[in-house]
């Protein structure tokens, strides 16, 4: 009975878990970008509030997400090298922001994440349309 209460106390967690389990690869990347942006925003807010511990937590989470995005790169594609450079730029800026407890290095990273997220969102839509057409033709 106690376990049931725990499960029902956080229905958004169950929903999020289901989203991840049913998402395709490009949707998962969009989700990673969403989480990355959220942690950058929270890190920035906490720096501004002078909450060093919370800022560190969120900026480290952002770095972990970037590391995961790097690990997902297939270096057989030329664009992967470009993405690797962008991710490294983001990692360096987030680390600098975390060390200095300064929001300035986060601004270009937030803009870059927005642009990349939108690109992957479009790729996801295109992939879903292509999959639908294949199902219709089958």
Q: What is the beta-strand fraction? A: under 5%
- What's the order of the H and E elements? HHHHHH
C-alpha end-to-end distance: 47 Å
The shape is globular
How many distinct helices?
Answer: 6
What Rg is obtained from the alpha carbons, in whole angstroms?
Answer: 18 Å
Structural class: mainly alpha
Low-pLDDT windows of residues:
1-7, 131-137
Tell me roughly what share of residues is in helical segments. over 70%
User: How is the biggest beta sheet arranged?
Assistant: none
Q: How many DSSP-defined strands?
A: 0
Q: Give the integer mean of the pLDDT values.
A: 85
What are the main properties of this structure?
disordered N terminus, mainly alpha, 138 residues, disordered C terminus
Write the layout of secondary structure elements.
Blueprint: H1 2-9, H2 11-22, H3 25-48, H4 52-71, H5 78-100, H6 106-137
Helix pairs in contact: 3-4, 3-6, 4-5, 5-6
How does this structure look, described?
The protein is an all-alpha fold. Helices cover 86% and strands 0% of the residues. It has helices at 2-9, 11-22, 25-48, 52-71, 78-100, 106-137. The model is unreliable at 1-7 and 131-137 (pLDDT under 50).
Sum this structure up briefly.
By secondary structure, the protein is mainly alpha-helical. It contains 6 helices and no strands. The chain has helices at residues 2-9, 11-22, 25-48, 52-71, 78-100, 106-137.
């Amino acid at each position: 009975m106690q376990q049931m209460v725990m499960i029902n106390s956080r229905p958004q967690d169950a929903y999020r878990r289901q989203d991840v389990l049913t998402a395709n690869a490009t949707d998962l990347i969009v989700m990673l970008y969403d989480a990355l942006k959220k942690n950058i925003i929270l890190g920035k807010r906490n720096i501004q509030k002078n909450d060093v511990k919370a800022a560190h937590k969120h900026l480290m989470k952002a770095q972990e997400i970037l590391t995961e995005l790097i690990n997902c790169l297939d270096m057989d594609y030329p664009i992967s090298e470009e993405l690797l450079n962008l991710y490294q730029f983001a990692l360096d800026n987030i680390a600098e922001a975390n060390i200095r407890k300064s929001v300035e290095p986060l601004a270009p990273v937030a803009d870059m994440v927005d642009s990349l997220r939108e690109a992957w969102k479009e790729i996801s839509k295109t992939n879903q349309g292509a999959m639908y057409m294949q199902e219709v033709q089958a």
